[in-house]
Structures are given as structure tokens and as C-alpha cells.
């Protein structure tokens, strides 16, 4: 089977499941119940387990890493269910938003993802706004200039995302229609830093911006992954016969990445924990790192880890939230030499330190 037919089938399965769910929802809605009580409870548990870390306990956003609000009227009334489900299933490559779908190495089944997406919409409680599928025409050069003046401070000069979502993101643009982008610019996102621009900019200027953002599309589509096997406990310690490294921690917790890179280079003994979503570990990780995602349960977190003076170093892309959570659990269990890589995984890559699995998407 060629790569493209495989990925077409992968995306195809996703849409068949979507149709199945939409049919179910339509049926349930005629009975005034968007989800069964059990499905809603399960969705809420999954939300707390997998999402609250960054999107906040009540979906308000910004709990870590500038994750957007998942309750604003503007977002929840214009983001179609398949866009919402695919954002969860396939994530946003090169941002802290990981893919959660099991086929990508993530922890959730398609059914759980759709149920969560439906629950998020239901919880937000906003009416659906049907937006046009028509392309929006505008002047790219004017759009690019306006973008730098009005938007780059938060979204980055290349729309790569800084304190606001990456708009040049391939997975975002694969699903966001022109009308969806324009609506967000005109109306902003309630109770977030994204203000409404409809009184500040003319219709033509908003169209130019929309056309410019659209022009950053890359033709991305979801691809199935070959998943590598997880390491076994006997392989957890990197350089088991090496010397212990010496680390100087900030706030008794954060170790500068250059000290960790040096320890690896000098074949020091240590354990590296990748605390991101398991799909991210499958994509790329620091050599020797083992996947201990932030949503692991307290009774499983320490399994197979050496409880002696071996250094245990956690990292994530948030850059602290997921690692802190895992390190707190280990410290509570009496593990002493533990720390978090201060700068996080993206800075590690940008600094040119070693990773396995190539550049993340
Ligand atoms: C002060 C910071 C700031 C500025 C300036 C800003 N934005 Fe935003 N923008 C945000 C934040 C934060 C979000 C995410 C809000 C949320 O949902 O929590 C966002 C969201 C968006 C979204 C929706 C993205 C999605 O994933 O649905 C679009 C589109 C957008 N901004 C476009 C623009 C454009 C175009 C400009 C310039 C005219 C602009 N923004 C200026 C902060 C900003
Ligand atoms: C490690 C932090 C983190 C976790 C955990 C996380 N997200 Fe995100 N999420 C983000 C960030 C950051 C973004 C914005 C990415 C970007 O720049 O486009 C995002 C974007 C999104 C978006 C797109 C919203 C928009 O405005 O376009 C959705 C939907 C979403 N996340 C849902 C979820 C759900 C549901 C979960 C749990 C299954 C989850 N996220 C877990 C960090 C996280």
C-alpha cells in the first residue's frame, strides 16, 4: 500500500466515524439530550485527565502555555464538530497541542475524542453559527503588512504563534475555512486577549488579512504512523555504569538544558522522562527518554524507576506544566534527585541538541 492511499484511508475512517456520530447526535438531540449521562461523565473525566493541565479546569484557557479558551462563544459557535475533533485527534504540529488519537500513538480512541468534542460544544452552550464555505478574496501584500502591524505582537511575525495560537499552522489551516478565520478577526474571542477588530479595521482590511493567513496553507493531511515499541524497565537508565552528573537547580527544581546536554554527552548516568502526550514521544524525543505522560496515574508513575541517587530528569513542551506534575508525584513518593529541564523540548531542538525521530512533524 502506498503512503497516500494509506493516509487517505486513515482520514476516511475519521470521517465515517464523524458521520456516525453526527447521526447519533441528531437522534439524541431530537430527544433533547446531546449525550447520554454516562458519555458526558466520561467526557468530563477525560477532559480533566488530558486537557485541564493547559486549557484550565473550567475550559477557560491559559492554565499553561497560552492554551486557548475552549468555551468562548466565538470559537465554540463557529468551530464545526469535525474541526474540533480533528484538533484533538491530530493536534497542532510544532505546538504544545499534541495529537491524542490512538492511531498517532496518543491515549484516546476516536469514540472518546468525538464524545469529548460533543461534550465541549454542549458545555459551552452557544448556538451554532453556519458560516459560508466560499473563499474570501483579498490583497496578500496589504494583508501581510497589516499582519505585522496589528497581529504579530501576539501571533508572531510569521504567524508561528507566540502568546497566541499559530495561524500558519498546517493542521489549523487544513480545517479552518476563510469565513471561520474572518469571523475570529471580526469578533475576537470573548474573555481572551483576542479582541474584536471589526470596529478598528475595514471589511477590506479584514478580507486582506484573511487572504494572507489563507496563503500560508501547506497542504497538510493526517498520516498514520509506524509506532515504535515502548522501552522496557531494564533500559530505563541511560548509561547505568556512568558517573552521576552534577546539576545546579533553579528554584530547587529546574535544570538548564545545557547541563543536561553535557551530562548526556559525557555519558553520565540518568533517567529521562518524556512527560508529553505519548504521541509526541513517538514523533521525536531526547535519546534514551521514556514516555511517562502527565496523565499517568499515581500508582503507575514510579513503576520501574530506580529509587536511589540516580538523577531523574523530566521534560515537556509546555515547558513546565506536564513535567512539574510528574515530578511532584515522584517527589511525593520519596524520589530525591529529580528535576525538570527548564527551557522545554522546543528550545532543546532549536539549540541543536540531539533528538531521535527527526524533527517533530
Ligand atoms: C494582544 C494579543 C493579540 C493580538 C494583537 C491579536 N491576537 Fe489573534 N488571538 C490572540 C489570542 C490569545 C487568541 C486565542 C484566544 C482564545 O481562544 O483563547 C487569538 C486567536 C485568533 C484567531 C483564532 C485562531 C483559532 O485557532 O481559532 C485568529 C484567526 C486570530 N487570532 C487572528 C488575529 C489577527 C488577524 C490579528 C491582527 C489583526 C490578531 N489576531 C491580533 C491574541 C491576539
Ligand atoms: C500541554 C498543553 C495542552 C494540553 C494538555 C492540551 N492542549 Fe489543546 N492546545 C494547546 C495549545 C498551546 C493550543 C494552541 C496551539 C496553536 O498554537 O495553534 C491548543 C489548541 C487546542 C484547540 C484549538 C483551539 C483553537 O482556538 O483553535 C483545541 C480544540 C484544543 N486545544 C483542545 C484540547 C483538548 C480537548 C485537550 C485534551 C484532550 C487538549 N487540547 C490538551 C495546549 C494543550
TrEMBL record:
Q: Which residues form the Cytochrome c domain?
A: 38-124, 138-217
Query: What CDD domains does this protein map onto?
Result: RHOD
Q: Does the keyword Chloroplast apply?
A: no
- Which SMART domains does the annotation name? RHOD
Q: Which residues form the signal peptide?
A: 1-28
Q: Which UniProt keywords apply?
A: Heme, Iron, Metal-binding, Signal
Q: Which PANTHER family match?
A: CBB3-TYPE CYTOCHROME C OXIDASE SUBUNIT FIXP
Q: What is this protein called?
A: C-type cytochrome
Taxonomic source organism: Lutimonas vermicola
Amino acid at each position: 500500500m502506498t503512503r497516500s492511499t494509506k493516509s487517505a484511508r486513515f482520514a476516511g475512517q475519521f470521517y465515517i466515524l464523524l458521520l456516525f456520530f453526527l447521526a447519533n447526535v441528531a437522534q439524541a438531540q431530537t430527544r433533547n439530550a446531546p449525550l447520554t449521562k454516562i458519555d458526558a461523565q466520561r467526557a468530563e473525566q477525560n477532559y480533566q485527565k488530558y486537557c485541564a493541565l493547559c486549557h484550565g479546569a473550567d475550559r477557560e484557557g491559559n492554565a499553561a502555555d497560552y492554551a486557548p479558551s475552549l468555551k468562548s462563544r466565538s470559537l465554540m459557535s463557529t468551530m464545526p464538530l469535525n474541526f474540533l475533533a480533528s484538533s484533538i485527534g491530530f493536534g497542532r504540529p510544532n505546538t504544545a497541542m499534541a495529537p491524542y488519537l490512538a492511531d498517532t500513538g496518543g491515549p484516546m480512541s476516536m469514540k472518546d475524542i468525538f464524545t469529548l468534542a460533543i461534550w465541549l460544544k454542549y458545555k459551552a452552550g452557544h448556538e451554532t453559527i453556519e458560516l459560508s464555505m466560499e473563499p474570501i478574496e483579498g490583497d496578500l501584500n496589504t494583508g501581510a503588512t497589516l499582519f505585522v502591524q496589528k497581529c504579530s505582537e501576539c501571533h508572531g511575525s510569521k504567524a508561528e504563534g507566540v502568546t497566541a495560537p499559530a495561524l500558519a499552522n498546517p493542521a489549523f489551516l487544513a480545517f479552518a475555512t476563510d469565513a471561520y478565520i474572518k469571523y475570529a478577526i471580526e469578533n475576537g474571542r470573548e474573555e481572551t486577549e483576542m479582541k474584536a477588530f471589526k470596529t478598528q479595521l475595514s471589511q477590506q482590511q479584514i478580507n486582506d488579512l484573511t487572504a494572507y493567513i489563507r496563503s500560508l496553507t501547506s497542504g497538510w493531511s493526517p498520516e498514520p504512523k509506524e509506532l515504535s515499541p515502548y522501552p522496557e524497565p531494564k533500559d530505563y537508565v541511560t548509561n547505568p555504569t556512568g558517573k552521576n552528573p552534577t546539576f545546579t537547580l533553579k528554584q530547587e527544581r529546574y535544570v538548564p538544558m545545557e547541563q543536561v546536554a553535557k551530562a548526556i554527552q559525557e555519558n553520565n548516568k540518568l533517567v529521562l522522562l518524556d512527560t508529553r502526550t505519548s504521541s509526541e514521544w513517538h514523533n521525536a524525543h531526547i535519546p534514551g527518554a521514556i514516555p511517562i505522560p502527565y496523565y499517568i496515574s499515581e500508582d503507575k508513575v514510579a513503576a520501574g524507576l530506580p529509587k536511589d541517587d540516580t538523577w531523574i530528569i523530566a521534560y515537556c513542551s509546555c515547558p513546565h506544566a506536564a513535567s512539574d506534575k510528574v515530578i511532584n508525584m515522584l517527589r511525593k513518593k520519596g524520589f530525591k534527585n529529580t528535576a525538570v529541564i527548564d527551557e522545554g523540548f522546543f528550545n532543546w531542538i532549536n539549540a541543536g541538541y540531539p533528538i531521535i525521530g527527526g524533527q517533530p512533524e
